[in-house]
Amino acid sequence: MALFFARVVAQIEVLLIAPDWLPAMPAWYSGLLPYPLLLPAQIALLMAMCVLVTRAPASPAWAVKLWRSLALLYFLGMAVRLVLCVHTYGPDFYLHGAIPVAFHWVLALFVLGAAREAKSHAQGDEQRAEGSVHP
Description:
Blueprint: H1 2-16, H2 35-55, H3 61-89, H4 98-130
Helix pairs in contact: 1-2, 3-4
């Protein structure tokens, strides 16, 4: 979550200040969404991540498996995107989509971690219901 927050802040910094030590704005997003729409979406995503971290709901096993599968597909899809980016742009690939790919990986790993946490909460709830774990 902190890595994604840092990306959002760095992106704002690039837009407003354009420091020499950070890549230019086009390197920070794919352009699928205009930045005035992307920034609120990123902030909403950070808020949802905070809720997940602080409230970690228990989930049924099928839901955990679904989230894990979707996160892995997401991760692999971004790997394919990076390969295509490297193939298309060569040594300058990092200026043409590598930053978004890296942070999509961060989000995919967050989903994997959230699914793992939901699984452990669900297992703890089951054990308490069976009486084998005392609160």
